[in-house]
Amino acid sequence: MLLIHCPYCEEKRPELEFRHAGEAHVARPADIANISDAEFAHYFFYRDNPKGVAYERWRHIHGCGRFFNAARDTISDKFLTTYKAGEPKPELVEAANENKAEAQKGNSAK
Amino acid sequence: MSAAGANRIAGAGRLTPANTVRFTFDGRDYTGLEGDTLASALIANDVHLVGRSFKYHRPRGIQTAGPEEPSALVGIRRDAARHVPNIRATVQEIHDGLAAVSQNRWPSLAFDIGAVNDIGSPLFSAGVYYKTFMWPKAAWKHVYEPVIRNAAGLGVAPDQPDPDRYASRYVHCDVLVIGGGVAGLAAALSAAESGAQVILCDENANMGGALRFEGEAKLDGLEGYEWAQQAVDRLSVMDNVRVLQRTTAFGYYAQNFVGLVERVTDHLPAPDPDTPRERLWQVRAKRVIIAAGAIERHMVFANNDRPGIMLASAARMYLNHYGVAVGRKVGVYTANDSAYAAAIDLKKAGVDIPAIVDLRTDPDSGLVEEAKGLGIRVLTGHAVTGAGGKLRVASMTVEPANGGSKAEIIPVDAIVMSAGWTPSVHMYSQSRGKVVWNEESQRFLPGEYPQDAVSVGACNGTDGLQASVTEALAAGETAAKETCPKAKKSGVKITVDGEGKWAGNMVGAGPGAGAGKVMKAFVDFQNDVTAKDIRLAVQEGMHSIEHVKRFTTNGMATDQGKLSNLHGLAIAAEALGRPIPKVGLTTFRPPYTPTTFGAIVGHARGKLFDPTRKTPMHVAEEAAGAVFEDVGQWKRAWYYPRAGEDMHAAVNRECRTVREVAGMFDATTLGKIEVVGPDAAQFLDLLYTNPFMKLGVGKLRYGIMCREDGFIYDDGVVARVAEDRFHVTTTTGGAPRVLHHMEDYLQTEFPHLKVWLTSTSEQWAVIAVQGPKAREIIEPFVEGIDLSNETFPHMSYAEGKVCGVPARVFRMSFTGEAGYEINVPADFGRQVWDAIYERGAPMGMCLYGTETMHVLRAEKGYIIVGQDTDGTVTPHDAGLSWAVGKKKTDFVGIRGLNRPDLTAPGRRQLVGLKVKDGKTVLEEGAQIVANHNQSPPMNIIGWVSSSYWSENCGHPIAMALVEDGFNLMGKTLYVPMPDRVIEVEVRDTVFFDKEGGWIHG
Question: Which of B349, B351, B769, B808 could serve as B823's disulfide partner, Cβ 3.0–4.6 Å?
């Protein structure tokens, strides 16, 4: 069971208190009624599914109830950071590069 | 001869001869000693044959003295409900009255019909199931599988509910030490004396690890085992230490979350019923010190599974701890120094050792001389190439390792063996660490640590007692310093005064068990995998160790290949012609040893499996004879049968009564959300397809909620309580996810809106009174609301008092009748319910349940989200276009509804079905076709979503989602069933009171 840091409660709480809520930083288009089919597809259906750093939404549903964002490494399952909804996407260059190197190592071993 | 078995050696071991214990095995009475395992007690009584193997039904004995045991699996029976199969005899402690039975044999252990599998074994080689039983297809299910399942297998599962209790605890600590051998004890002492909060667990009944059998070790001037017990005593009295014996660390999960299972009562003759059988410890440790030790490997040679053949360390454990000789004439086959100590100990105890056969040409000369000095014959550079005997080993065949001269057959009644020691990297590997092959020592060792953990001692490949102690002391102190702010120097010093020899290693098949030989040289005893099977797997094209494993099932038994993995890997590597690290090791996964479902489930079973939600009127409904159905966690009154009525009759009566007089229904389970704030109307306008800005105070509106994709997500009636306050209802099952959905938009997409959401589902009891006499029935109880049609028409809302209780009254209907839904604070629900019932019943009103509610709403064509919709239905498909605000510029789903596929012709649309024969009730979920004469697979054009007998209409009614349904009115379609085809005609969905006049009363 993971421990997840809630940026609103400012403490680590067990995963049981949280619910995953999909990819982060996918904003609902302001003029959604008038966007093209392609734009709607990108907004609603297309997701990144990266090997490495994933930006995702979580909700502290059985705690403060707030939605927040997290950066999680999908290889190690480790949370790199969590931050409040509306805050900008943090740059996690170092971790991402490490993971890229790891992934390449994995490929060359095959 | 001792009372506790012929093989007890006077003066040997640590058990007390006076403390005898009576137990049975396969119905025969035996005597053992307090502290015995079932295995030690059986061997003491000269019983080696304890089971039959999984596939070939070969006779099997006891091969180890610990948790790694692959073969000695038995059923343990305490009473009828407490029969546990597949218990390792080497782990189960005996107690008075313990009853053990052997498994997988018929009619008896000594004579087993299934052993014919052994003779026919060329038919049962690796992968046989994938290849042999493919044809004819149906035979797999009806012939092959039942026969194979019956013949192959282990114990029989109990057929009664488990009467025991299982406890569960969460605990946090600075340092968790896994393993109570010398390294674990040293680490725990050091961490604890430094001030850290420490948990030390060990899976065995006694701590000490290898010190339990190794006589040479001396620590702080004490014999090793004595030192270990004193260390445990010292730890046990410290406030900052929790010592858990008989406790297995079975799973290592993310962020140093480790699952331990403590066996609390299995070793007790008469457990206190208030004591749990097992206790699950879910530990979150700041640091984990893994001190899991090493597991000895067997030698791979022909018939190496005969009862009486076991690991050298096991024989030593039986002698030095339990005082039991494993035989009277014990052969030794080794590639490791530690087997010498077993031979020497046994010899000194008076056991004949005909020969030590050492695969190595140049073993430690000191050991060889010592053995020879005791009169033991030592054959270096030799191999055991076979074992004689069937139910018990009778001889060993010895040949020079490089072949050549003639084989010698040496009579024995036991063989002890050692191919070396495999560091136990299970916990490290489970922590997602990648093991690294050490070429020099020919073993896999922990590499980098992905979690905050460290390995010490034998599991870390640290050789030698002094080195292990030093490493463990340092690890304990470092762990304390780095996890506990108040840590000090530990000051623990341990002097090592003597230690045994453990060098030497071999992996793979021994001489004589190489390629091209026809024999059974077992690699994995529990799954009956031989060296030949692994070579066959490679020959068949399995080049990855993961494929070899799955093809042969090597290492896939409940022992997880603790003995077999490395041998299997080495044999595969040899057959592939690649070095071992290139072939790679499979990943270790939890659980480390079999773990009971009871321990995992804990208290969460039966009534405690899931919370049960009951409405405030539940008891009254029960008293009225309600039959309940589960709707999510809710118990809902389903129907109220009267004497002599079945469900059908009761529902028919309820349906009629509601339309003719009135009915009362418990609608409390509806989800309720209070939406408050200056922007509340705007928020609902965005969340529902309907317009809400202009809904007047005191008015109701039926709303549909979509997701962005345009599909119906939920529906419900919304009341405008005040300018800035709405009372929103949701479906019973949808309440939590609708609130979640609303919160999501409010917090992340529309945070500029000033709105506050509160779940009030449990705060209001909801009593629906429906039918022509509804108003007359409730009128006398209502204060402050004029219920007349003129001032309080259909879809109105008002606050007042009902039975003197503050109430929110909805004039609404899910039946098509004039009706009211009375919301009162939950605590008053029962009293209002009773009052209305007392007045209504003499007037002819009935109570009705969810089934009648379903029928009545279907008569009116009202949908139930989740029954008449399936996540691919738009409001337009459901015939609810009127509920989509045409002038709105935004709402959730506005763009999704305009996607090309959602506006294309030919979508499945909700229609009514008339059954042509006028009496058949269609099956919900039944498929619909346009032409029933087509050959399968037929072109399915829809399915039946709701179907009931309607007593009020006098014929069956149904709704269905049918392709282009709105344009098929009057067309005949077909519902093919297994026994016949049912003809239906497409019609509209309103079956009763088409003009809709009844609703206005």
Answer: B808
